[in-house]
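Researcher: Good morning. I'm working through a list of sequences from a screen, and I'd like to move beyond sequence-only analysis. For each chain I'm collecting a predicted structure so we can compare shapes side by side. This is the next one on the list. No need for commentary yet; just the structure.
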Amino acid sequence: MLGVAAVVVAAGFAGWSGWTWWDADQTAAREAALDSGRRAIATFNTLDYRRIDEGLDRWQRVSTGALTDELRQTGEGSRKQIEQAKTVTEGRVLDAAITEFDPPRATVIAAVEIVVTPDGGQPVTKRSRMRAELVRTDTGWKVGALGQIPAGAV
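Model: Good morning. Structure tokens for this chain:
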């Protein structure tokens, strides 16, 4: 009887240990996705017309898949628009959360503050809500799709 009890206790401990390990791994993966999403959303809302290539390169480094392809295809057109606008934007994520998490995919929503400074002008602060679809790649979590969340959307 004592042997059976020992086996039951050992099996219970093994199950609990396995669950704890899996849960800790999932929590770490969620945190990594959220952190990557926050940084990427800030990156996509930050650009200096005086250093366009650096900014566009940063955008490509935090993107993947169709979004990276789109950035490459629209690069020259985007560059011209940015040069003509002559603005510096600096994005800062005020708050963010994961709304969906099913590795290797995750969805992050964020409240973003964007300071837009026109050449020779005064900075203007704008606020926006963004949604990023993340994909875990060999080099970490990257943005596969990004868009604004319309005002009034739930």
